[in-house]
Design goal:
Layout lengths: L5 H10 L5 E7 L5 E7 L3 H7 L1 E4 L25 E6 L5 E2 L7 E8 L12 H14 L3 E10 L1 E5 L27 H6 L1 H14 L3 E6 L5 E6 L5 H21 L2 E4 L13 E8 L16 H12 L1 H8 L21 E3 L6 E3 L9 E3 L8 H17 L24 H9 L2 H7 L1 H20 L3 H7 L4
Parallel strand pairs: 1-6, 13-14
Antiparallel strand pairs: 1-2, 3-4, 4-6, 5-6, 7-12, 8-10, 8-11, 9-10, 12-15, 14-15
Helix pairs in contact: 1-2, 3-9, 5-6, 7-9, 8-9, 8-10, 10-12, 11-12
Length: 457
């Protein structure tokens, strides 16, 4: 685990005398930034001596409630655990009304105990290091295709969320996928988003109007350093929410915010390179090399075990519908968007796999770790993925995925592969959080219960 040097803080403070506050953030199991707003005078000390955060900060539900069963609350007296800054993460938050910095931290492997094993970034580092030890350097991009909806902060007359007004004052009603006029209507937001990404050094590229009113997708460039790619994906999500808030909007990364509209996915692209950066999956054959096939075989073999990582919430599973561009089966194919693992077309040197399972609500660190661990499993055991799917994958499903939260959580809990690949201590905390959320979710009575059962049950 590499942490930043104090000179980074000194340089930042000298270059930005206008900054008085710095947002310190640690990413929790749900992918939510947690932390504090610090005064500039506190910054250098964090680089020199670290910053304590309570152990319970990595044992919170998506609503920010302690999970006692995690073992990180009362059993350890909610102990202070030391975090340190990540190199290159100190930057500006240009969407703030007053000049504000941003700093991402991670738990120290020893000084951060007992919470360190629950740090999602550590789980990814472990997966990357294991591949590198065998000579494989993972190259990744969070295609972001981290799709999201831009919503009004004000609900509709029925109290439900609604797509944001366009600059022409009209609320979009039709999907208008790939519509350039729709992007034009988002110009003020997109201008600020691109400008903020430039300030933070995030390699955001293409913007697309996705398959629903108010749904947007932007892509991030791939990185030879997979950890850097995922760090950037996490920071991009924080940035999108901040810029949207500046414009009086809400950026929504729910997997399925509307029952009758497209869900939001997080498509992750991965290949393996040698130490010099040469793509080991490169081939003139569109199907790639045997290494690529074994990688797909491993991801398919571990998919059920990892589904609760890729789809971590009850709402995640509402995304899985026929003919929805969300895959429903363990399947792969070349240039085919109806399968779970797609080998995109393109030049031989760009050959890679697009993992299409994750919802936009997944934690990028954990999703990437599970993907890479699955790939490693496939390579070590030379797992063949079987025949590719040609044509409509929804009509040719050989082994469908479980599409409910309970089944996915039980599969993760009973998985010996997950305990070894992701770490037993991490999995104990993660499952404690998710079982607590499951009990809360199932115990809440809401609008659908009343509509279905209030009168006639």
């Amino acid at each position: 685990m590499q942490f930043a040097k104090p000179q980074e803080a000194r340089d930042f403070l000298q270059q930005h005398p206008e900054v008085r506050s710095i947002e310190l953030m640690l990413i929790d199991a749900n992918g939510i930034p947690r932390g504090k707003l610090l005064h500039r005078d506190e910054l250098l000390a964090i680089y020199e001596n670290g910053r304590p955060l309570p152990s319970s900060i990595l044992a919170l539900t998506i609503q920010g409630e302690d999970v006692e069963e995690s073992g990180l609350v009362w059993e350890v007296a909610d102990a202070d655990c030391w975090t340190y800054p990540l190199p290159g993460s100190l930057t500006l938050q240009p969407w703030r009304a007053t000049p504000t910095g941003q700093l991402q931290v991670s738990m120290h492997p020893t000084q951060g105990m007992p919470a360190a094993p629950a740090d999602p970034r550590h789980v990814l580092v472990r997966a990357i290091d294991r591949l590198k030890a065998d000579g494989y350097h993972p190259v990744m991009a969070v295609e972001l295709e981290l799709e999201f909806y831009l919503l009004d902060k004000q609900r509709d007359a029925n109290g439900r969320p609604q797509p944001a007004l366009q600059t022409n004052g009209v609320r979009p009603q039709a999907p208008q996928v790939y519509g350039v006029y729709e992007l034009e209507q988002l110009q003020p937001f997109l201008d600020d988003l691109y400008a903020a990404c430039e300030v933070q050094g995030l390699p955001v590229r293409t913007a697309i109007s996705e398959y629903a009113p108010g749904q947007v997708e932007l892509t991030l460039e791939h990185r030879f350093d997979a950890l850097q790619a995922i760090d950037e994906g996490v920071r991009y999500k924080r940035l999108v929410k901040g810029v949207a808030n500046k414009h009086g909007l809400q950026a929504c990364f729910m997997a399925k915010p509307f029952g009758d509209l497209a869900g939001s996915g997080m498509h992750m692209h991965v290949s393996l390179a040698d130490e010099q950066g040469n793509n080991l999956m490169a081939s003139e054959d569109p199907h790639g090399t045997p290494l690529l096939r074994h990688a797909i075989g491993g991801m398919m073999a571990t998919l059920n075990d990892a589904l609760a990582i890729f789809c971590p919430n009850a709402n995640s599973f509402r995304r899985f519908q026929v003919n929805s561009y969300a895959p429903l089966a363990k399947s792969w194919g070349v240039n085919n968007r109806t399968v779970s693992f797609r080998v995109p077309g393109g030049p031989a040197k760009s050959r890679h796999v697009e993992h299409r399972i994750c919802g936009a609500d997944a934690n990028p660190y954990l999703a990437a770790a599970a993907i890479l661990a699955g790939i490693h499993h496939g390579i070590n055991n030379q797992i063949d993925p079987g025949e590719e799917i040609i044509g409509n994958g929804y009509e040719q499903a050989r082994e469908t995925l479980p599409t409910d939260w309970l089944t996915a959580l039980r599969a993760l809990e009973n998985s010996s592969w997950a305990k070894e690949a992701l770490g037993k201590d991490f999995l104990t905390v993660f499952l404690a959080i998710k079982w607590a959320e499951f009990r809360q979710f199932m115990g809440e009575v809401g609008e659908q219960d009343w509509r279905w059962y209030l009168t006639h049950a």
